[in-house]
From TrEMBL:
<dbReference type="InterPro" id="IPR055392">
    <property type="entry name" value="BROMI_C"/>
</dbReference>
<keyword id="KW-0966">Cell projection</keyword>
<feature type="region of interest" description="Disordered">
    <location>
        <begin position="133"/>
        <end position="159"/>
    </location>
</feature>
<keyword id="KW-0217">Developmental protein</keyword>
<feature type="domain" description="BROMI middle region">
    <location>
        <begin position="174"/>
        <end position="840"/>
    </location>
</feature>
<dbReference type="InterPro" id="IPR055391">
    <property type="entry name" value="BROMI_N"/>
</dbReference>
<dbReference type="GO" id="GO:0005737">
    <property type="term" value="C:cytoplasm"/>
</dbReference>
<dbReference type="Pfam" id="PF23431">
    <property type="entry name" value="BROMI_N"/>
</dbReference>
<dbReference type="InterPro" id="IPR032735">
    <property type="entry name" value="BROMI_M"/>
</dbReference>
<dbReference type="InterPro" id="IPR039156">
    <property type="entry name" value="PHAF1/BROMI"/>
</dbReference>
<protein>
    <recommendedName>
        <fullName>Protein broad-minded</fullName>
    </recommendedName>
</protein>
<dbReference type="Pfam" id="PF14961">
    <property type="entry name" value="BROMI"/>
</dbReference>
<feature type="compositionally biased region" description="Basic and acidic residues">
    <location>
        <begin position="133"/>
        <end position="148"/>
    </location>
</feature>
<feature type="domain" description="BROMI C-terminal Rab TBC-like">
    <location>
        <begin position="858"/>
        <end position="1285"/>
    </location>
</feature>
<comment type="function">
    <text>Required for high-level Shh responses in the developing neural tube. Together with CDK20, controls the structure of the primary cilium by coordinating assembly of the ciliary membrane and axoneme, allowing GLI2 to be properly activated in response to Shh signaling.</text>
</comment>
<feature type="domain" description="BROMI N-terminal">
    <location>
        <begin position="12"/>
        <end position="139"/>
    </location>
</feature>
<feature type="compositionally biased region" description="Low complexity">
    <location>
        <begin position="150"/>
        <end position="159"/>
    </location>
</feature>
Length: 1290
């Protein structure tokens, strides 16, 4: 094998190449040649694939063929001669002896000589081929470099990346010293180029440890300025940025930045003016662009890792960058010079480098500090460019942005290498807007303003800058794209709009920048001009107005922006007066809806503009405070009229298919849905829901909402919580509940519930079964459960869904049969009183527990309980189920089985069987305890409920002569002018110092005296009652309904517990209720709607009349006299729900709406005050999908029975009559303030509705919150009481 054949040599070359490629990762990690040799020597120990390499196999085969026979012969001799065995340590010794003897043999020496000769020949051949290949590559690269004149700079700049793919060459210190000398500027070009080639392939650790490194770095920087050497030098810089330590990277970056700056100084490049252009393929520009490209790439990359390094490193990099970009030629030059910032804008037009630097506080703090102290010129240039672009906007109109965007996208086009002066100016403008937009987002960035600009007398403030940018948006309008993929990234209007969006999202920033008078006037200038009848001077008025509306909507979507629009007169109106923004927008929207602007021709254009401004109004009128301001404009009527007109058009009949996208739908259909959506948003507030109901479009709006919710479509681009709150708001009222039922919403909810409760997940794998839930209601069923609670929270809703609706009580139920209505649900889950019903449920205990929990929540409303008890005998059914759960047939002898269902039934029976506040009754827990008695609560097997659940009433102190209130009422005359004021002062004094003296007798006398005093005042007497007094005595034909009879039993039970009624109180109470019913019936309008609640008398029991009867100690005459006089006062409209039911004193459309004033007035203002005074509580309700108005209606309808103690209920009545009914609002807000910790906690556990309904208001005392309520009166009485007094004309 002394001479290799050609075939063998080629094969061996291939094996060596393959071997080197396989271990290249290990070799490239070596820091020197000696280290690489050490790695090769220990490769067998470190590489588990060592024996898999073909080259290693070739060597083993060669050794086997050369020494195999000699080794076997030697082992045979030793084994026979010495008698050793091939195991254990003897085997190892045998191998060592054989190896030593063969190393000294002639065969071994010949084999080594052959391998050395063969491998040396192959390695020499490979080395020669490698050198030839490198020379060819260099020649080809030079030829390609000279021939590439039409390619775009973004392609040719990528050469710097090629250095990462070069192989390493290990160089000694002497060779590095020689390379540093060869790079000296005086050396021949070829010698310097060859030195650069070697450096680019050298190991960086070797270079950095070289003593000549400083000389090398200086010579490398000099080579950047030479056309023949700049390419290779730039490759070395790129390599150093990725592989060098921090100090070297920082030095190299600073050297590159200084070199670029010096190049601009020496070349004196001129900015193209007129018809002149900038060709980026010229050698000078190409070289500068490549260097700027490398700088920009490093700027964007370094932000991802500099936080791991000392701040000094980051500060030096940032300062080098800002120094380069702040470079500015002296003003003495006649022509405008080309500067580094111009080339950077071509490379990174949207300033991604700056955006990344400003992202984190770590770097943002340094950037802002350096800009303020040393490089403010960079900000000055950006502001100057925006001013220049705005002033010369007429010259820039056209397709400058389109042309530049086309060049950015189509880099291979020939014309993309040539840029005009306008294009460069526009690129700098885009870059400046992006920089300024990010800068003013932060407080320290805004502190850089005002900016002094050359040739401008006054400094440019933040407000001035925003006005300039808005003016640019006006001159270059482009419509908002419906599809993000079709956006123009360089559109001036799009850039400004994006900046304004960012400002809107930051409250502090928006207040400082956008909420200024000059900015708002500039935004609304086109709107005011059109309202004034002026001809629009805008190029595209419709597009501009849509952009304006988008900004206004985003401002109004924030609390500060909404307050700005509603209350600050910061805009000059059409008649020259100062006006609030909300009024201007509302007037303009009405003009658009009425087609009062002929300049906006075309239905599609007019609809787009009108829809955009309706959405701005939407952001205002879907809040309580916004609706209060905008209601006088009657937007709901105008929108409803436009909807009716559109829905009747023949073009609208050809509706799109379900698969049709929004962009393919007919314009009229889109416009109709826009109007319906806008009407629907009125339902976000109680008063808005009344306005929506009056338009007659409630049913259509609810159907539209249901169709969108089933498709999982977003409510709007500014809404985050879906339709939950809106559904709850609608379900609070009778007409809303009917609309939900007719739309299919309730049926769909029941299907979802049944699927989660009874069906479960069909595709669950047996290998991973679902864990058994330990909660009474499984988490999968919690959402439908809460939705049902929200739906059935109001007694009026329950009445509409259940009144005169019998339970099916079928003899047979199919397993696949689902309930489709609320009576069906009650029949299947609550009234489970037969084996047929039990066997029809797959999960009987879980499903029945769900039903009993739902029943418990329903029974929290006294009127709902009375209806359920009257129609379905709920109590009898539950008691029978409890008795059926006894172990012995003899009830007295057997013991009841304590299980989950019996515990739930016991809780419901106690809740409905005992009346009282938190200190007056005890409700059993629904959980078992450890110990001998897991359930210590007595089981209810029959009525009355065990005394255990009734707490002893608090002792009532007898009124002493020292009670000032009692003495005042006895001695004073009600005709005194200051009598009411004195009475109020005494009441406040007693509440703060002696609340225990305000006993039932004192409060009864107080209430009676105040009502008499007010009813004798012509200014306080709101309703004339003389014509109806005769109806009081005419009770022959008046009968109490069975629901009212059940209510009488509850009242007598409560009065007996309070010891205020005697045993003969039933007949007086019944007579009182009949007299009041007769009196109110004469003031009731005839039903004109199909609502069940409007067909008969007041649906439910008159809890206010019963409360007055108890307060008067069962005295019929006093109670009747007080109620008759009270009915003439304003307070009766709010504290007495039965008083205003379908009342003739209300407008006909309001009386027939089925929505009581206590909801659309009292509850409306409770929500408004909560948002202002208790924002956390307001947010908690919104997140839970529940509404404060729903809970207020619940409390106030039953006069706080079961929620407050009797003494607090009496104080509530006295306060509302004595201080005016707005105290009803303040009391509800005070209660929510008292419950705030619990509300926040229960919201997190998703049980807010359950908590508020099932639990009394523990620990609430009006005297403790009196100061808070007085503060609310001082702040809000003007608005709240004015609205209450004007409720007759809502």
């Amino acid at each position: 094998m002394s001479q290799l054949l050609v075939k063998d040599e080629v094969e061996l070359q291939s094996l060596i190449k393959q071997f080197l490629k396989s271990i290249s990762e290990k070799i490239t990690g070596a820091t020197s040649g000696e280290a690489a040799q050490e790695i090769l020597l220990h490769l067998e120990e470190t590489d588990k694939n060592f024996y898999s390499y073909e080259f290693v196999r070739y060597l083993r085969q060669h050794i086997e063929s050369s020494l195999g026979a000699a080794v076997e012969e030697e082992m045979l001799n030793l084994t026979l001669g010495e008698g050793q065995h091939g195991t254990g340590s003897g085997h190892d010794a045998l191998i060592n002896v054989v190896a030593c003897r063969n190393k000294d043999s002639a065969e071994y020496q010949q084999m080594m000589q052959t391998l050395k000769t063969s491998l040396s020949s192959v390695v020499e051949c490979l080395t020669n081929k490698y050198k030839e290949s490198q020379l060819r590559k260099e020649e080809t690269h030079r030829e390609r470099e000279h021939s590439q004149h039409s390619s775009h700079f973004t392609d040719s700049c990528s050469d710097s990346d090629s250095s990462f793919n070069q192989s390493y060459t290990f160089i000694t210190q002497e060779e590095l010293q020689l390379l540093a000398e060869r790079l000296e500027p005086g050396k021949p070009k070829e010698m310097r180029r060859e030195a650069l080639h070697v450096l680019c392939r050298a190991s960086l650790p070797d270079l950095l440890s070289c003593e000549s490194w400083s000389t090398l770095r200086r010579n490398l920087s000099l080579a950047l300025n030479e056309a023949e050497l700049s390419e290779e030098a730039l490759q070395f810089f790129a390599k150093s940025f990725s592989c060098s330590p921090l100090n070297v990277t920082r030095e190299m970056f600073a050297s590159l930045a200084k070199n670029v700056e010096s190049s601009f100084v020496s070349h004196k490049l001129n900015f193209p003016s007129g018809s002149a252009t900038l060709d980026i393929n010229t050698p000078k520009i190409t070289r500068l662009l490549k260097q700027m490209r490398l700088i920009n790439d490093f700027q964007k990359e370094v932000a991802s890792f500099w936080i791991r390094h000392p701040e000094k490193y980051m500060e030096d990099v940032i300062e080098s960058s800002l120094s380069l970009l702040s470079f500015h030629h002296p003003h003495g030059s006649a022509e405008k010079p080309l500067e580094p910032i111009h080339l950077l804008t071509l490379l990174d037009i949207k300033a991604d480098w700056f955006i990344k630097w400003m992202h984190g506080y770590y770097s943002r703090n340094v950037v802002l500090r350096l800009l303020e102290r040393k490089y403010k010129l960079l900000v000055v240039v950006a502001v100057q460019q925006c001013i220049h672009y705005s002033e010369a906007s007429e010259g820039f109109r056209g397709d400058v942005s389109d042309a530049l965007a086309g060049k950015q996208k189509n880099a291979s086009a020939l014309q993309s290498s040539v840029y005009s002066g306008k294009e460069l100016d526009f690129a700098l403008f885009v870059h400046s807007v992006c920089v300024l937009g990010k800068l003013i987002l932060y407080a320290n960035g805004r502190k850089l303003f005002p900016i002094r600009i050359r040739k401008h007398k006054e400094p440019v403030t933040l407000t001035d800058l925003l006005v300039i940018l808005i003016n640019i948006m006006y001159h270059h309008p482009k419509p908002l794209p419906s599809d993000a993929s079709h956006t123009d990234p360089l559109s001036p209007s799009g850039l400004v709009l994006e900046l304004l969006w960012m400002l809107c999202e930051q409250p502090d920033c928006a207040a400082e920048c956008l909420h200024q008078t000059a900015v708002m006037e500039k935004l609304l200038a086109p709107v005011v001009a059109l309202l004034s009848g002026q001809q629009s001077t805008l190029d595209s008025p419709a597009t501009t107005l849509i952009l304006i509306a988008d900004v206004l909507a985003r401002i109004a979507n924030t609390d500060r922006g909404l307050a700005l629009f509603l209350y600050e007169k910061n805009v000059v109106g059409p008649q020259g007066e100062r006006a609030c923004t909300a009024h201007i927008i509302a007037q303009f929207t009405l003009r658009l809806l009425g087609n009062g602007l002929p300049s906006l021709s075309g239905s599609a254009v007019s609809h787009s503009v009108c829809g955009a401004f309706i959405f701005v109004c939407w952001q205002m009128y879907n809040t309580c405070e916004g609706l209060q301001v905008l209601e006088p404009y009657g937007l709901h009527k105008a929108i409803a009229a436009a909807w009716r007109k559109t829905s009747s058009l023949p073009e609208r009949i050809s509706e799109a298919s379900p698969e049709t996208s929004l962009h393919e739908m007919p314009n009229e259909l889109i416009w109709e849905e826009t109007l319906l959506d806008s009407l629907l948003s009125f339902a976000a507030t109680p008063r808005g829901l009344l306005l929506l109901q009056q338009t007659g479009a409630l049913t259509q709006c609810i159907s539209y909402m249901f169709s969108r919710s089933t498709k999982k479509l977003q409510v709007s681009r500014c809404e985050k919580f879906g339709y939950g709150v809106m559904v709850t708001q609608v379900a609070t009222t009778a007409p809303g509940t009917v609309a939900l039922r007719d739309s299919g919403f309730i049926q769909e909810l029941l299907v979802q519930l049944w699927s989660a409760l009874e069906c479960g997940s069909d595709d669950a794998q047996l290998a991973a079964p679902k864990p058994t839930s330990m909660d009474p209601i499984d988490r999968s069923c919690l959402k439908p459960f809460l939705s049902l609670v929200n739906l059935l929270s109001s007694s009026q809703s329950v009445w509409e869904l259940l009144h005169q609706q019998p339970l099916p009580n079928k003899s047979e139920y199919s397993l696949r049969e689902m309930p489709t209505s609320i009576p069906d649900l009650i029949d299947r889950l609550i009234a489970v009183n037969s084996d047929v019903k039990i066997h029809s449920l797959f999960h009987y205990e879980q499903s029945h527990t769900f039903g009993l929990r739902l029943l418990n929540v329903l029974c929290c409303s006294l009127d709902s309980f009375l209806l359920l008890e009257n129609q379905y005998n709920i109590c009898s059914m539950l008691l029978q189920s409890q008795r059926d759960n006894i172990t012995d047939s003899d009830i007295n002898e057997g013991e009841i089985i304590v299980d989950g269902l019996s515990v739930e039934r016991n809780h419901v029976l106690v809740r409905v069987g005992v009346v009282g506040g938190p200190s007056e009754r005890r409700l059993p827990l629904r959980s078992l305890q450890e110990g001998d008695q897991p359930y210590p609560w007595p089981m209810v097997l029959s009525y009355p409920v065990p005394h255990f659940y009734t707490l002893d009433p608090p002792e009532t102190l007898h009124t002493s002569q020292s009670c000032e209130m009692s003495a005042f009422l006895t001695s004073s005359k009600e005709s005194d002018e200051n009598w009411l004021k004195k009475c109020q002062n005494l009441f406040l004094k007693a509440m703060t110092s002696e609340p225990h003296n305000l006993t039932g007798n004192v409060l009864a006398d107080l209430l009676e005296s105040v009502v008499v005093h007010l009813s004798n005042s012509a200014t306080e007497c709101l309703f004339s009652l003389d014509q109806h007094r005769a109806a009081v005595k005419d009770v022959k034909n008046v009968e109490l309904s069975s629901v009212e009879q059940l209510g009488v039993d509850i009242c007598l039970k409560y009065g007996s517990y309070l010891k205020v009624l005697g045993g003969d109180a039933r007949n007086p109470l019944i007579l009182l209720l009949k007299q009041i019913k007769s009196f109110l019936s004469k003031q009731r309008r005839n039903a004109s709607s199909g609502l069940l609640t409007q067909q008969e008398s007041y649906p439910g029991h008159d809890w206010l009349a019963s409360t007055v009867f108890l307060l008067m100690g069962g005295d019929l005459e006093r109670s009747l006299g007080l109620l008759l006089r009270l009915s003439s006062l304003l307070a009766s409209a709010f504290i007495w729900p039965a008083r205003m039911h379908a009342c003739v004193h209300l407008p006909e459309e309001v009386a027939g709406s089925g929505i009581p004033p206590v909801y659309w007035c009292t509850a409306h203002y409770v929500e408004m005050l909560l948002k202002a005074e208790l924002p956390l509580v307001h947010s908690a309700f919104r997140m839970s999908g529940f509404t404060p108005s729903q809970m207020c209606l619940h409390w106030l309808t039953q006069c706080f029975w079961n929620y407050l103690d009797w003494s607090e209920i009496c104080l509530y009545l006295c306060a509302c009559v004595l201080f005016s009914p707005d105290y009803q609002v303040y009391l509800c807000v005070a209660i929510f303030r008292h419950l705030q910790p619990d509300i926040l906690q229960r919201t997190q556990s998703q049980e807010l509705q359950i908590f508020l309904k099932e639990n009394p208001i523990e620990g609430f005392r009006m005297s403790d919150h009196l100061e808070f309520m007085l503060g609310l009166e001082r702040s809000y009485r003007k608005d709240v009481l004015t609205a209450m007094k004007g409720f007759l004309e809502p």
